[in-house]
Amino acid sequence: MARSLLRRLAGPRELDLRWTSARLDPIAAPESYISAILRDDHCDGSQLRPLVSLANQVVERAIDQPLRLLRERHAADSVFVWPGQHYRLLASIVEVLKPRTIIEIGTFNGASALALLENLPAAGHLVTFDIVPCFQVDRTLLRAEDLDGERLIPVTADLHRGEVFEAYADLLRTADLIFIDGPKDGQFESGLMSGLGRLGLAAGTPLVFDDIRLWNMLHFWHTLDLPKLDLTGFGHFTGTGLALWQEQHS
Known about the structure:
Shape: globular
Structural class: alpha/beta
Order of helices and strands: HHHHHEHEEHHEHEHEE
CATH architecture: 3-Layer(aba) Sandwich
Strand content: 5-15%
Number of strands: 7
Distance between the termini: 40 Å
Strand order of the largest sheet: 3-2-1-4-5-7-6
CATH class: Alpha Beta
CATH topology: Rossmann fold
Helix content: 25-40%
Number of domains: 1
């Protein structure tokens, strides 16, 4: 009853959550955001076996990841916190999967890219997309020498634009692992899933989603119709989700 009353009072407007946010202050966490707990009945437990197997391997190896590249670049101390940050988990999943092609969506300062490069096989390559050129980002951790060869390929492009997505369709189709850290604007992630369905992504391709516990990502993650696991306790405090692509999603 209280919940329905709250909805009626709020109407179409966003609730003022400043009072709720203030209640987090006494906890004295370095960062805090308002999220929600959602029950999820979408996935048949039998579909989760390969996902659980992968997650077990990745989590077990995450704690021992040295993150040498990030240490060499003097990344912020918070990057090396685990659990709480996802960088060890990203390095670990590359170590377990040994992918030849990784697609990252959302380069920003390059911290995640360096984690993904940590265990990338010699013949592998990471293609990372962003709408801002990587060397125009303040305090980027990437260097010009990172672009020597084809292990790291930064692309400045907006995959939310249909013609741009189609231009990179052949590349996206070859992905062995996709890490999605996009704008979380309520549109991009859903559009990306539709696009991946159209291009025929291989069944079983692992997808890692960042920030699934942030308010703007709750609905997307809750309604994502794929075998999925919330690995927040072993990854990023704002949410880490692991999913496997299915053919029927295409």
